[in-house]
Each structure stands twice: as C-alpha cells, then as structure tokens.
Recover the amino acids of this structure.
C-alpha cells in the first residue's frame, strides 16, 4: 500500500475512533471532549498555543543542537583517542540510565524557572543515541578502503571526510530518527515538571482548570510536532541516500 | 621500479608469518605469489604496500621504503573486496584517487573506465554493478594515478570461473599497453601461469619461498592459449611445485 494513503487513513480514522469512544463510554464532554470542541480550542486559542509551542520548539532545538555538538565531538575523540572512550564509558552509562525526572527536579531546584534545566534535560535524553550511533558509524569504515587511503598517503583529514564520515552518515541519520522526536518529548516533560511557559506548562495549567478540551488540543499540537520532526528526518534521509534506490536502467 | 625483499621476517605474536624471505621483483615484471593458506603471501604484499612493517629484514621499493614509495604515489593496490565507497558513482570512486594524490590528469578517469569496458556505467553506483564490473572500477581506481607498481591481492578471487578468465585476459591487455611492476596474489594455478613472468610458490608454517618458477610462455597470451600444450605443461609444473609446497607445510 502507498505510504501516503496509509497516513491519510490514519488521520481520518482518529476522529472516527474518537467519536466512537465517546458514544460507547458515554463520558461527558468535560471528561472526554468531542473532536469539534477540541478543534474549536485549536482555532480560538491559536495564539496562546502558538506562543507556548514556540517556547517548546526553541528549548528542544537548542538542547538538540548542544547534544549533537557534544556527541559528535566525543565520538570523534573516541576514534582517535581510545582511552577517552574507556574514560567516558561509565559516565555515558550513568547518563543513559539515571531516571531523568529526578535529575530534572534537581536541576530545577538549582536553576529555577529558566530555559536551562529544560535544555539540559533535552541534552541528557538525546545525547546518548547520537553518541552511540556516530561512534559505531565512524568505526564501521571499510578496512579495505582505509588500506587504499593509506597507500595513497592520504591525510587524516581526507580519511575522515572521504571515508569515515560517509560511513558514519547512515548511522547518524538513524540516530536522528530516535533522538529528534525525543528532544520534543524531553522539552515537554521538563516543562510539565516546572515552568511558566511551553506546551508542558500549558498541560499542567489546563489540568488544574479542568480544561480537558485544552489538554487535548495541546496533545494534538505536541504529537504533530513530534511526528513532524520524525517525518523531516525521514525526508532528509531519503534525499541523502537517494542514490541507494536509483534504478539500474 | 624494483621491489626487493631481503631476508624478511614477520611475526604475529607466536605465529611466524614469513621467515627469511628474499625476492627481487624486476622493473616491469609480473610476479605471482601462490601457496596454501597461511603461507604469508598476503603479508608479503601488505609489507610491500607499506601496510605492515616487517619484524626483521627489509623491503625496498626502488631503494626506498614502501612508505616513501606511497608518499610519491608510486603504488596502486587492489584487494579481493573492492575498496569502493557505496555513496560515490563509479567515476567518482576512480576520481577520488586523483583528488587524494593531487595528480590531476595522470590518466583520465573517464577514458580509463571506457577503456575498461564500463563506458555506460560511469554514473552507476557500486551496488548497481556486477562483481566483475566492481573489480574493474576498483582496479581503475588503483591505476588512475599511473603508479609504477601495482599490488593485487586476489582481485578476481570472488568471481566465477568464466568472468575470472575474462578478467585475467583483460588485465594482461591493460598491462601490455602500460607496463608496470606487479605483485599478484592468487589461489589459482591457471591464473598465475597465464599472467606471470615468474611464479613464486610459498609454503606455510612458517611462510617461506619453496620455489620460484619462470613461466616460459611467449606474450601476448590470450584465453585461447589456455588450451595450448605449452601452457598446460607450465600449469602442471606450477601445480607440482605447489603440491610439494603443501607437503612442506605440514
């Protein structure tokens, strides 16, 4: 089946299932608001939603950019300085496995309601998949190609740009598939814990006011954002690796 | 360009890969290394390419170290597995050698690929080419900067028998147009005989030279000569020597 058609079917199915759920359970609209009510919130409160969405996007992208910079720099250092990898291993294991909500709480106590704790949370969540994949990708370079480069007396820079990095690229893109979406989820969760701006904050505020319709509206915006991030990565992947599908004839 | 192995020793831990190997490959000569697995033929080739250092003895390429010969871009190598980047087209993979060596215009990648029968495949990616075509691109990439020395490690080892014969004949043709000093590693007695001026038979554990055989066949040689009586006699000579080397190895 055509991918686009499948997406279309899903987008059409969601409101149908939604209405069905309301019919079957009989929940009142303040518990389970119908799609038109949520659609109404999306439209009438669009400026409020947009400004909070923007805050979330800025935090997510800033954190993600920092995570990419650190992870790539570390991966490259692992390649040329193996002792760095041994030294970093326990740190990465801890960063990957410590429950980030607890770290978030600590950061909020120290840093208060600033963008910084949210950005740090995004970095902590997205950093590891990038580090793991790029490290593996850089080491996946074909030894036969490396031998060829050595007999041509290539500089380390040429070996990196012409062989190592192209070999790592598919791994790097695969990391974005996981981590880019993760950056948005991370930012929303961090705001949800403590903030005065952003989609996460809007959820908390709406819940305290029993505004189920707005919670649903935020859910739709945040989901669209995360799915959009994923689809963007897929589109970039398709463009970068267009040669893989090129027809023989 | 000559390649001179003088009493070369190479150990990997407890394993003696090469023991007291001495051999001089003359300028423009085609020398094949053949022997049972573990006889050190690939190690010899890698030492000549500067990819391994001998534990003892020396290897000189025109009186200089292999590393320096690489610096002067005198060496082209091709292995059994083509050293091609999946994300570059055939043409771009060949041009990469020129980008790295900075020897623009040594040979034209375009013309070389066309010469190699890949005229229509310049913009194909490696995964779109057959094994034999990939290997031709690989050898083009090893030749395009016009090195004086070509080191080939079982370049046709992964190909089927008929493609392999065709590729052998093709390589002979390429070298007859532009003579190079060649060290060629193979498992195939027939391939060694039809291509070489001399066949060096090695035995294993430890890797050492068992016999050096001069192939007494006139050039040019083609696939048709594979059915000649003279050719078959030379093949039998090399094979007998190889069997003796295998005996020595145990």
């Amino acid at each position: 089946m055509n991918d686009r058609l499948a997406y279309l079917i899903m987008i059409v199915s969601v409101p149908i299932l939604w209405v069905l759920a309301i019919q079957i359970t009989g929940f009142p609209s303040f518990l389970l608001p119908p799609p038109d009510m949520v659609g109404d919130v999306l439209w009438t409160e669009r400026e409020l939603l947009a400004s909070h969405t923007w805050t979330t996007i800025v935090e997510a992208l800033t954190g993600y950019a920092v995570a990419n910079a650190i992870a790539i720099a570390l991966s490259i250092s692992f390649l040329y300085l193996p002792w760095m990898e041994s030294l970093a291993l326990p740190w990465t294991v801890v960063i990957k496995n410590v429950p980030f909500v607890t770290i978030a709480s600590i950061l909020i106590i120290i840093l208060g309601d600033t963008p910084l704790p949210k950005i740090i949370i995004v970095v902590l969540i997205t950093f590891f998949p990038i580090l793991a994949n790029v490290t593996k990708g850089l080491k996946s370079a074909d030894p036969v190609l490396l031998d060829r480069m050595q007999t041509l007396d290539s500089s380390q820079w040429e070996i990196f740009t012409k062989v190592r990095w192209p070999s790592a690229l598919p791994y790097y893109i695969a990391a974005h598939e996981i981590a880019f979406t993760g950056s948005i989820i991370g930012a929303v969760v961090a705001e949800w814990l403590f903030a005065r701006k952003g989609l996460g904050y809007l959820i908390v505020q709406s819940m305290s006011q029993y505004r189920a319709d707005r919670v649903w509206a935020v859910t739709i915006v945040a989901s669209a954002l995360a799915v959009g991030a994923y689809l963007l990565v897929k589109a970039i992947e398709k463009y970068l690796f267009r040669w893989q599908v090129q027809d023989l004839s | 360009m000559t390649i001179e192995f003088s009493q070369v020793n190479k150990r990997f831990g407890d394993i003696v890969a090469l023991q007291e190997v001495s051999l001089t490959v003359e300028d423009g000569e085609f020398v094949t290394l053949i022997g049972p697995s573990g006889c050190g033929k690939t190690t010899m080739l890698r030492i000549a390419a500067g990819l391994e250092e001998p534990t003892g003895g020396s290897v000189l390429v025109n009186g200089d170290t292999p590393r320096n010969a690489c610096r002067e871009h005198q060496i082209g190598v091709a292995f059994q597995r083509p050293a091609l980047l999946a994300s570059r087209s055939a043409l771009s993979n060949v041009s990469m050698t020129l980008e790295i060596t900075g020897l623009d215009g040594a040979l034209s990648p375009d013309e070389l690929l066309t010469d190699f029968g890949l005229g229509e495949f310049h913009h194909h990616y490696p995964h779109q080419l057959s094994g034999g075509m990939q290997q031709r691109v690989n050898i083009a990439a090893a030749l395009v900067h016009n090195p004086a020395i070509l080191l080939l490690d079982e370049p046709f080892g992964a190909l089927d028998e008929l493609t392999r014969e065709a590729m052998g004949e093709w390589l002979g043709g390429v070298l007859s147009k532009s003579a190079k000093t060649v060290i060629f590693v193979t498992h195939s007695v027939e391939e060694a005989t039809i291509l070489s001026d001399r066949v060096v038979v090695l035995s294993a554990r430890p890797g050492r030279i068992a016999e050096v055989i001069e192939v007494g066949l006139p050039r040019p040689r083609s696939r048709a000569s594979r059915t000649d009586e003279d050719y078959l006699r030379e093949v039998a000579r090399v094979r007998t020597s190889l069997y003796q080397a295998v005996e020595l190895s145990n």
Observations:
- Chain B touches chain A through 30 residues (CB under 8 Å).
- Helices of chain B lie at 41-48, 66-71, 90-101, 109-115, 131-143, 161-177, 189-195, 229-249.
- Chain B has two domains: 3-74+149-156+166-249, 83-146.
